[in-house]
Design a protein that fits this description.
By secondary structure, the protein is of the alpha+beta class. The chain has a single domain, classed as Beta-Lactamase (2-Layer Sandwich). The protein is built from four helices and five strands; from the N terminus they run H-E-E-H-H-E-E-E-H. The chain has a five-stranded antiparallel beta sheet, sandwiched between helices. It is globular and about 45 Å long. This is Roadblock/LAMTOR2 domain-containing protein.
Amino acid sequence: MSTIGNNQRAMADHVLSMTKRLRQEVPSCLATGIVDMATGMLITYETTESHPAEVLDMLAGATLDLFQGRTVTMIEDIFKERRGVSSAEHYFQEVLVNSTNLTHLFIRNNVNDDVVVVVVCPRSVNIGMLFAAVRRVIREHHGF
């Protein structure tokens, strides 16, 4: 197998491992996934329930809109201009969304900002514990 093939396999194993750890270690975790912002695709997911494929596809698109939608990008550009920042850095790193029954946490990877981790828990989850657990797992899986 080529070096590229080995690197892709290692990356896939790493992503799958992180997804499993999130499901195991995040309190009350119902589902987790990883979205590639460069392609707008859901790389992998793990959930306690089955969901239609079109819902999972929409999750990836919604994640892309949350972090890189037109209005979000405009806000980031204004902040950069006013602060004299010329980097490609994204300001929006974490987004918490509460729906009627669920809490959805979206966090950009701190090494590769084209990767967003999505975690879904019941709305009753302790928000502080949710953030702490997800950040810890991401930090420990820093190589992707």
